[in-house]
Input
Amino acid sequence: MLAVMENSGANLLESLVFNAKTIIEGRMLLGESVRDNFIRSISNLQEARERGYLDSDYVGNEVWAADADGCIVVKSDEVFASYFGKLGIRSSEIVDSLLSADYLADDLEENEFSTFELQLGNEEAITVVSGVDDAGFSYFMFKTGKFLVSGWREFSITNLLDNISREPGIEYVLLQNYEGIIFASRKVERMIAIVDDPFLEETLQDSLTNSRITEFYDQEVLEVARPFFSQGSFNGILRLGLSMHLYNELTAEYRNRIYLLTAILILLTFLVIGALYLYQRSALYSESLSHTKEVHDKVLAQIPSGILEFDREGKILALNPAGEELLGCEPNQVIGKNIENVLPREIIAALHKNENRTRTSEVEFDRDDERRNVTIISSYIGDSQENAATRLALFYDITQLRRYQEQAKKDQRLKELGDMSAGVAHEIRNPLNAISIAVQRLREEFPSDGGADAQRLLHHLISETKRLNKIVEDFLLFARYSHQPGTSDLNELIRSVVQLVKPQADRQNVDLEYHLLNGATVNLHSEDMKKVMLNLILNAIDACDSGDMIVINVAESDSNRIKIKVSDTGKGIPEEIIDKIFQPYVSKKRGGTGLGLAIAHRIIKDADGDIVAENRPEGGAEFCITLPKG
Output
C-alpha cells in the first residue's frame, strides 16, 4: 500500500513539474513580449521628441499602442508631457511617487531600459518601464498592478497548487528553496527550513524523488519530495503531503483481523486459515487501489494541460479531460485504443521521435478546420528507457500564444505605417495649403478671357490639390484614430447611409437592398459606424456594373453580438490582394488612397469587433462585420 501511494505521489509530482515549467516559460515569454511593446513605444516617444512633435496626444497614442495605463516624460524633475488614461484621478500621486523614488532613469545609458515596481498608497502598485535619451529626458511608461501582463491569477503555479491541494487525500503542496516557501497551498503557513531538515538536504543533493512518513498539523502524512529546476528564480524542492488517515484505518482493521485469524488457527486447518488470509489481503489491496485510482483520476481532471499515458505497444492507458478536448477525442472513448487510430498523425510523429528520457517539441495540426499549436513534453516512466513499461506525454495548447505573437507583429507594422503617415502628412500639409492659396489667387487675378487652356490648367491644379489634401486627411485619420465610446442604432444609420449613396447608385444603375433587425444597436459611436458603412457601400458601388445589386443584411451573431453583411454581385476582390485587403496602401480602385479599408478595420477592431472579406462563389464580394451589442 505504501509503495502504491509513493508511486502515485511521484507520478503526480512529475506531472506538476511538467505543468509548472510550462507555466513559467509561458509567463516569461509573454512578459518579455509585453515589455518589448513598452520599449518600442518609449523609443517612438524619444524619436517624436527629437523631431519636435511630442505632445500629450502623441503620448496617449503610444500608451494605447503598448496597452499601457499611462506615461510621463520628465526633464530635470519637471513633467514635459504625460497621459494617464483611466488613471487620471491618480495622476498627481503617480507623478510625485515617480519623481521622489530612487528609480529615476538618470543612471541609465541611452538605449537602455529598466523595469521596476512602484508602491502607491492604499496597498496599490504600478509596474514601470523607464528609459532615457541623450538630451536628458526620462520616459516612464507604466501599468497598474505588480505585473505588466494582467490575469496571471488563473494562469499561475499558485493557482495550480491550490486546486490540487483541495482534492481529498492531499494535505499540502508547496515549492520551497533555501530562502523559504516560494509557492504553497492555502493550508501551509510555515514549514521547517531546508537547512534544518536532513531529508530535504539529501533530496536536493542527490536530485532524486524521496518519500517519508512525517507529521503535518498533528496528522500523519506520507511526504513525497523531488528537486525542481526551471528558468528564472523558481528553483528549489517540490513537496507533496498525502493523508495517511485511510491507510491507518486499513492497517488497524488489518491488525484486528490478523488477531482473529490467529484465534481461528486453533480451530481450523491450515488450508482454511491460508484461504482466509489471502482473501483479506486481496480485499484490502483492492480497496486501497480503488481509492488511489480515484484520487489519481480527480487530480488528472483538475490539471489544465493534457496528460496522456500509453504503453510500449501504443495502447492508451490514461487521457485526462483536458487532453481529450485538446486532441479532439471523444470523452471516455479512447482508453485501450492504439494511438495510431486516435491521435493526429503530427502528434504521433512527435511521440515516436522521443529517443531520450525526456523530449520537448512543438507540433501544428488541424482540428475541426482550425490550425492548432501544441507543445509536447514526453518522457518514459521508470528507472531507464529499457525498463520503462509506459510513457507519459504532457500537451500544452499554445495556439492563442502564437496568435498573440502574430497579431503583435501585425500591430507593430501598422503602428510603424501610422507613424510614417503622420510624419508625411505634417510635412505635406503646410506647402499644400500654400499651393492651394496661390492657385486660388492666380484664378482670381487671371483675366477670365485669358485663354481656355490656362483656365483648364488652373481648374486641374485646384482639383488635384483637393485630392492631395484628401489623401493627407486619410493619413492623419489612420495614424491618429482614437476609439470614442458610444452606440449606434443600425436601422436608422443604414437608412440614412443608403439615402446618401442612392443617387450615385442610380447613376450606375446599381440596385440597393437592405434587411434590418428590430432594435439592432451596436457598441460603436455612430460617426465611426457611418464611416465604415459608407466606405464599404461606396466600394461595392465602384465594383459593380450596370444591373448589379448590393444587399445589406443585419442579424444576430449570438446573444451578445450583431452581424452586418455587405455583399454585391460585382467584379469581386482580386485574388492577389484579398489576403492583405485591410492593410494600408493596398487598393485596386482608380484614384483610391488605399486607406479606406485600413481605417474601417482599425475602427472595428478597436470596438472589440471583427471584419472579414471574401469572394462569393456565385460572384461578387462580401464583407462581414461582427460587433458587440449596444
Q: What stands out?
A: The chain has six domains: 28-144, 156-243, 249-299, 305-397, 404-480, 488-628. The CA atoms of residues 164 and 517 lie 48 Å apart.
